[in-house]
Amino acid sequence: MELLKKIESKQAKLGVIGLGYVGLPLAVEFARAGFSVVGYDVDQKKVAALMAGRSYIPDVHSDHLAEVVKNGTFIATTDPKRLGEADIIDICVPTPLRKTKDPDMTYVVQAVEATAAVLRKGQLIILESTTYPGTTIEVVQPTLAAKGFKPGVDFYLAFSPERVDPGNPNYQTKNIPKVVGGINEDSTRAAVAFYSQVMDTVVPVSSPSVAEMVKLLENTFRAVNIGLVNELAQMCHRMNLDVWEVIDAAKTKPFGFMPFYPGPGLGGHCIPIDPHYLSWKARQYNFEARFIDLAGNVNAGMPEFVVQLIIDALNSQRKSLNGARVHVIGVAYKRDVNDLRESPALDVLELLATRGATVSYTDPYVPQFKHAHLDLKSVDEKSMHDGVDCGVIITDHKVFDYTAMVNNFPLLVDTRNALKGVTRKHVFRL
Ligand SMILES: NC(=O)c1ccc[n+]([C@@H]2O[C@H](COP(=O)([O-])OP(=O)(O)OC[C@H]3O[C@@H](n4cnc5c(N)ncnc54)[C@H](O)[C@@H]3O)[C@@H](O)[C@H]2O)c1
């Protein structure tokens, strides 16, 4: 296979569609490994920032980006025709949900159409966007085959789920094992050879649909276990038990237990969304994904539970939520990231505001944001407690001064166990 030789000699050119949390690290990692990479994105502002050597993804160092832009191994463009130069095209576009919680395949379809427009013999096309089992074969392959090329022979096609964990200092693109499933043996072989150039471990599976299901199993596993522990947290609250202490002790069991932690609700682009892709697909087989739906219900109820904790905290000082000033500490969906997508902080803020509270927030990673009726700017950490009735820790960024919070807020609700070990009357824990 001609493509294999090109890959092994690093002569193969890579095209990446979608330069976000997934596509950009991938593009830069391959460029740093010596491949010529063309990144295509519809967002002109992102492309301009990249060509100026400015990264907007915390896990991609601007120094690394600037280096590959300068030496010409990476270029970003809004011109889809440039993808025609690529031997391998990797699709990393968003896969959100519609309001009805059905998969929104618009971006994937657009990216596949852009790929079909430049498709030529011998290319390898890989889909990395998280999606339901069957997408590669049912959605991607027919559009490409309509060009008159024979799938698996004239071009190679595979699915490889992305497992990136933004903000994780120990696991990044290179050392996270990569699962790959091609539509035939040659497609898998080409995709394995490609990822092996950069990734330490590549795990081939028998089909794209298996690879698609692997990703959904991983994320559903998290959603369900978080749902279980969120339910346990509510149960412990009723029983006046400390759920964090229970989990800490349970995790001393060296086998058969894996700790998951409760929190204010699910956030991010993956865990709250991906399981719905699976339950949607299951419904086509007349199959009800009960665990997914149940976990979804429990997790979606957490912001409301947090509001109840705030009401209880205020009540302990004979105050009502209506008219209170409540300050949210951390709004990103998880620790040490700047990503606000699906963040439970948004739900908590909305719920508080609709019940008559005056809301504000502090997050060094999110200077300002607009969402529904909210239009807020982050308050400086030093003055965030001024005139506030209750602080609520939603995201436990490492940079926060938790001791100062305990000393300065008249009431504190901690949804992340950031104040572990603190037993003060004005501190309330999930
Ligand atoms: N963020 C994560 O932690 C993560 C982890 C694993 C998997 N995923 C999956 O990877 C996929 C991408 O997620 P992301 O977080 O990188 O999204 P993102 O929103 O950060 O990036 C997607 C990029 O694609 C661009 N884009 C949209 N439509 C396009 C088109 N038609 N042509 C070219 N560019 C287009 C957008 O402008 C954006 O820059 C999703 O399916 C997601 O579920 C994400």
Secondary structure blueprint with pairings:
Elements: H1 2-8, E1 13-17, H2 23-32, E2 36-40, H3 44-51, H4 62-70, E3 74-77, E4 88-91, H5 106-118, E5 124-127, H6 135-145, E6 156-159, E7 178-182, H7 185-196, E8 202-205, H8 208-239, H9 243-250, H10 274-284, H11 290-300, H12 302-316, E9 325-329, H13 344-354, E10 358-362, E11 368-371, E12 374-377, E13 390-393, H14 402-408, E14 412-414, E15 427-429
Parallel strand pairs: 1-2, 1-4, 2-3, 4-5, 5-6, 7-8, 9-10, 9-13, 13-14, 14-15
Antiparallel strand pairs: 6-7, 11-12
Helix pairs in contact: 1-7, 5-6, 8-10, 8-11, 12-13
Residues 17-23, 40-43, 46, 92-95, 107, 110-111, 129-130, 162, 164, 166, 269-270 line the site of nicotinamide-adenine-dinucleotide.
Description:
By secondary structure, the protein is α/β, with parallel strands linked by helices. 38% of the residues lie in helices and 15% in strands. It has helices at 2-8, 23-32, 44-51, 62-70, 106-118, 135-145, 185-196, 208-239, 243-250, 274-284, 290-300, 302-316, 344-354, 402-408; strands at residues 13-17, 36-40, 74-77, 88-91, 124-127, 156-159, 178-182, 202-205, 325-329, 358-362, 368-371, 374-377, 390-393, 412-414, 427-429. Strands 3-2-1-4-5-6-7-8 form an 8-stranded mixed β-sheet, sandwiched between helices. Strands 10-9-13-14-15 form a 5-stranded parallel β-sheet, with helices on one face. Helix 7 (185-196) links the parallel strand 7 (178-182) and strand 8 (202-205). It is elongated, with a radius of gyration of 24 Å. The model has no long low-confidence stretch (mean pLDDT 96).
